[in-house]
UniProtKB/TrEMBL annotation:
It comes from Paenibacillus thailandensis. This is CidA/LrgA family protein. InterPro entries: LrgA/CidA. The keyword Coiled coil does not apply. NCBIfam families: PRK01658.1. Keywords: Cell membrane, Membrane, Transmembrane, Transmembrane helix. The keyword Transmembrane applies. It is found in: Cell membrane. It is a multi-pass membrane protein.
Length: 144
C-alpha cells in the first residue's frame, strides 16, 4: 500500500515544482514587460516625444517581436497573466472617480455616452481586424 502513496507524493512534489517554475517564469516575463515600459517612459521624457510612454513601449515591443529580437515565448505567459488580470488594474481608477461627484453630476450622462460609444468602436474595430486576420490566414493556408 505504501508504493501508491509514495508515487502520489512524488507526483505531487513534481507538480508543485513545475507550478513554481511556471510562476517564476511568469514573474520574470512581467518584470521584462514592466522594464520595457519604464525604458519607454524614460525615452519619452528624455527625448521630449509627444506620445505617452506606454504607446512607445507597445511600439517598441512590437518592433522587437517583428525583428525577432524578442521571441513571443519570452513574454507569452506574463502577457497572458496581465491580460487575464486587467480588470484588477482598473479598480483604483474606478474607485477614484468617487472623488469627482460634481463632475459626475454635471457631465455624467455625456461621460457615459462617450464610454459606451468608445467601447462599441473598440469592439467593432477589434472584430473587423480579427476578420481580416482570419481571412488572410485562411487565404495563406489555401495558397501554402
Amino acid at each position: 500500500m505504501e508504493k501508491p502513496i509514495s508515487k502520489l507524493l512524488k507526483h505531487e512534489r513534481l507538480r508543485i515544482k513545475v507550478d513554481l517554475r511556471k510562476i517564476g517564469l511568469i514573474l520574470l516575463q512581467i518584470v521584462f514587460i514592466v522594464a520595457l515600459s519604464r525604458i519607454a517612459d524614460f525615452a519619452v521624457e528624455a527625448l521630449r516625444l509627444p506620445v505617452p510612454g506606454s504607446i512607445l513601449g507597445i511600439v517598441l515591443l512590437f518592433a522587437l517581436l517583428k525583428l525577432k529580437v524578442v521571441k513571443l515565448s519570452w513574454i507569452d505567459l506574463g502577457a497572458q497573466w496581465l491580460l487575464a488580470e486587467m480588470l484588477l488594474f482598473f479598480v483604483p481608477s474606478t474607485v477614484g472617480i468617487v472623488n469627482y461627484e460634481s463632475l459626475i453630476r454635471s457631465s455624467g450622462l455625456s461621460l457615459a455616452a462617450i464610454i459606451v460609444s468608445s467601447t462599441v468602436a473598440v469592439m467593432l474595430c477589434a472584430g473587423y481586424a480579427a476578420q481580416l486576420l482570419s481571412r488572410n490566414q485562411a487565404r495563406g493556408e489555401r495558397e501554402g
